[in-house]
Amino acid sequence: MHTIDGILSNQALICAAIAWFIAQAMKVPLYYRVEHVWDWHRFVGSGGMPSSHTAMVVSLALAVGILNGFDTAIFAICVVLAMIVMYDATGVRRETGTQATVINQILKDVLINGKRISDEQLKELVGHTPFEVLGGFIIGLCTTLIYLWLTHG
Protein backbone atom coordinates (compact mmCIF):
# COMPACT_ATOMS: atom_id res chain seq x y z
CA MET A 1 0.00 0.00 0.00
CA HIS A 2 2.95 2.30 0.66
CA THR A 3 3.88 2.16 -3.06
CA ILE A 4 0.41 3.27 -4.17
CA ASP A 5 0.49 6.19 -1.72
CA GLY A 6 3.86 7.19 -3.14
CA ILE A 7 2.58 7.08 -6.69
CA LEU A 8 -0.55 9.07 -5.82
CA SER A 9 1.51 11.74 -4.05
CA ASN A 10 4.27 11.99 -6.68
CA GLN A 11 4.20 15.69 -7.55
CA ALA A 12 6.00 15.30 -10.88
CA LEU A 13 3.63 12.55 -11.96
CA ILE A 14 0.60 14.59 -10.87
CA CYS A 15 1.83 17.61 -12.86
CA ALA A 16 2.35 15.47 -15.96
CA ALA A 17 -1.10 13.87 -15.65
CA ILE A 18 -2.81 17.24 -15.21
CA ALA A 19 -0.95 18.69 -18.23
CA TRP A 20 -2.02 15.69 -20.34
CA PHE A 21 -5.64 16.05 -19.20
CA ILE A 22 -5.75 19.79 -19.92
CA ALA A 23 -4.22 19.34 -23.39
CA GLN A 24 -6.61 16.50 -24.26
CA ALA A 25 -9.62 18.46 -22.98
CA MET A 26 -8.61 21.47 -25.08
CA LYS A 27 -8.67 19.37 -28.26
CA VAL A 28 -12.47 19.08 -28.27
CA PRO A 29 -13.37 22.81 -28.38
CA LEU A 30 -10.39 23.65 -30.61
CA TYR A 31 -11.48 20.96 -33.09
CA TYR A 32 -15.01 22.38 -32.99
CA ARG A 33 -13.69 25.89 -33.65
CA VAL A 34 -11.91 24.72 -36.82
CA GLU A 35 -14.26 21.99 -38.13
CA HIS A 36 -17.60 23.22 -36.68
CA VAL A 37 -18.31 19.67 -35.48
CA TRP A 38 -18.24 18.41 -31.89
CA ASP A 39 -16.03 15.33 -31.90
CA TRP A 40 -15.78 13.97 -28.37
CA HIS A 41 -13.37 11.27 -29.57
CA ARG A 42 -10.74 14.02 -29.79
CA PHE A 43 -10.49 13.82 -25.99
CA VAL A 44 -8.89 10.38 -26.20
CA GLY A 45 -7.40 10.64 -29.70
CA SER A 46 -3.83 11.42 -30.65
CA GLY A 47 -2.76 14.26 -32.91
CA GLY A 48 -4.26 17.70 -33.19
CA MET A 49 -3.86 20.89 -31.22
CA PRO A 50 -2.32 20.91 -28.66
CA SER A 51 0.12 18.02 -28.36
CA SER A 52 -0.78 16.26 -25.10
CA HIS A 53 2.35 14.11 -25.33
CA THR A 54 4.47 17.26 -25.41
CA ALA A 55 2.50 18.83 -22.57
CA MET A 56 3.04 15.72 -20.47
CA VAL A 57 6.80 15.32 -21.00
CA VAL A 58 7.56 19.04 -20.69
CA SER A 59 5.53 19.18 -17.48
CA LEU A 60 7.39 16.14 -16.16
CA ALA A 61 10.81 17.58 -17.00
CA LEU A 62 10.06 20.96 -15.45
CA ALA A 63 8.56 19.43 -12.30
CA VAL A 64 11.57 17.13 -11.87
CA GLY A 65 13.90 20.09 -12.37
CA ILE A 66 12.10 22.23 -9.82
CA LEU A 67 11.66 19.44 -7.27
CA ASN A 68 14.99 17.61 -7.65
CA GLY A 69 17.28 20.20 -9.18
CA PHE A 70 18.16 21.21 -12.70
CA ASP A 71 21.67 19.79 -12.25
CA THR A 72 20.52 16.20 -11.62
CA ALA A 73 20.79 13.19 -13.88
CA ILE A 74 17.03 12.53 -13.59
CA PHE A 75 16.30 16.03 -14.94
CA ALA A 76 18.66 15.36 -17.87
CA ILE A 77 16.84 12.08 -18.58
CA CYS A 78 13.49 13.89 -18.59
CA VAL A 79 14.77 16.61 -20.93
CA VAL A 80 16.17 14.04 -23.38
CA LEU A 81 12.86 12.12 -23.23
CA ALA A 82 10.93 15.35 -23.90
CA MET A 83 13.16 16.19 -26.87
CA ILE A 84 12.66 12.72 -28.36
CA VAL A 85 8.88 12.90 -27.92
CA MET A 86 8.67 16.37 -29.51
CA TYR A 87 10.94 15.37 -32.42
CA ASP A 88 8.94 12.19 -33.00
CA ALA A 89 5.63 14.09 -32.87
CA THR A 90 6.71 16.54 -35.58
CA GLY A 91 8.74 14.05 -37.62
CA VAL A 92 7.83 10.39 -37.94
CA ARG A 93 4.28 10.61 -36.57
CA ARG A 94 3.49 13.69 -38.68
CA GLU A 95 4.71 11.96 -41.83
CA THR A 96 2.56 8.94 -40.98
CA GLY A 97 -0.48 11.23 -40.88
CA THR A 98 0.44 12.77 -44.24
CA GLN A 99 0.77 9.32 -45.78
CA ALA A 100 -2.61 8.31 -44.32
CA THR A 101 -4.18 11.35 -46.01
CA VAL A 102 -2.75 10.34 -49.39
CA ILE A 103 -3.77 6.70 -48.98
CA ASN A 104 -7.31 7.72 -47.98
CA GLN A 105 -7.55 9.84 -51.13
CA ILE A 106 -6.37 6.88 -53.22
CA LEU A 107 -9.03 4.68 -51.61
CA LYS A 108 -11.67 7.25 -52.57
CA ASP A 109 -10.44 7.57 -56.15
CA VAL A 110 -9.51 4.00 -57.15
CA LEU A 111 -12.24 1.54 -57.94
CA ILE A 112 -12.01 -2.18 -58.66
CA ASN A 113 -14.94 -3.46 -60.68
CA GLY A 114 -17.03 -0.53 -59.61
CA LYS A 115 -16.36 -1.05 -55.91
CA ARG A 116 -14.02 0.66 -53.50
CA ILE A 117 -11.01 -1.28 -52.29
CA SER A 118 -11.97 -0.48 -48.70
CA ASP A 119 -14.41 1.75 -46.90
CA GLU A 120 -12.15 1.96 -43.85
CA GLN A 121 -10.11 5.13 -43.66
CA LEU A 122 -6.73 5.33 -42.01
CA LYS A 123 -6.24 7.63 -39.05
CA GLU A 124 -4.86 10.93 -40.34
CA LEU A 125 -4.42 12.79 -37.05
CA VAL A 126 -1.36 10.91 -35.84
CA GLY A 127 1.39 13.50 -35.50
CA HIS A 128 1.65 17.20 -34.87
CA THR A 129 2.67 20.39 -36.58
CA PRO A 130 5.42 22.38 -34.85
CA PHE A 131 2.70 24.83 -33.72
CA GLU A 132 0.74 22.02 -32.06
CA VAL A 133 3.90 20.86 -30.27
CA LEU A 134 4.53 24.45 -29.14
CA GLY A 135 0.99 24.52 -27.75
CA GLY A 136 1.70 21.36 -25.75
CA PHE A 137 5.03 22.83 -24.57
CA ILE A 138 3.30 25.94 -23.23
CA ILE A 139 0.58 23.89 -21.50
CA GLY A 140 3.23 21.69 -19.88
CA LEU A 141 5.16 24.68 -18.57
CA CYS A 142 2.11 26.55 -17.31
CA THR A 143 0.52 23.51 -15.68
CA THR A 144 3.65 22.67 -13.72
CA LEU A 145 4.37 26.23 -12.62
CA ILE A 146 0.78 26.81 -11.47
CA TYR A 147 0.47 23.43 -9.73
CA LEU A 148 3.77 23.74 -7.86
CA TRP A 149 3.05 27.37 -6.97
CA LEU A 150 -0.34 26.34 -5.52
CA THR A 151 1.05 23.36 -3.60
CA HIS A 152 4.37 24.84 -2.45
CA GLY A 153 3.44 28.51 -2.14
Along the chain, the helix and strand elements come as: HHHHHEEH
Largest β-sheet summary = 2 strands, antiparallel
| Whole-number tally of structural domains | 1
Report the strand count.
Answer: 2
Q: Bin the helical content.
A: over 70%
Number of alpha- plus pi-helical segments: 6
Mean pLDDT: 84
Subunit arrangement of the protein = single chain
Structural classification: mainly alpha
Instruction: Give the strand content.
Output: under 5%
Distance separating the two termini: 29 Å
Query: Which ranges are low-confidence, i.e. pLDDT below 50, for 5 or more consecutive residues?
Result: none
Radius of gyration: 19 Å
The rough form would be described as: elongated
| Neighbour order of strands in the largest sheet | 1-2
Which tags fit this structure?
153 residues; mainly alpha; two-stranded antiparallel sheet; 6 helices; 2 strands
Topology:
Blueprint: H1 2-8, H2 11-35, H3 52-68, H4 73-90, H5 92-109, E1 111-112, E2 115-116, H6 130-152
Antiparallel strand pairs: 1-2
Helix pairs in contact: 2-3, 2-6, 3-4, 3-6, 4-5
Overall description:
With 153 residues, the chain is an all-alpha fold. The chain has one domain (2-91, 127-152). The chain is built from six helices and two strands; from the N terminus they run αααααββα. The protein has a two-stranded antiparallel ribbon. A hairpin with a 2-residue loop joins strand 1 and strand 2. Helix 2 (11-35) crosses helix 6 (130-152). The protein is elongated and about 60 Å long. The mean pLDDT is 84.
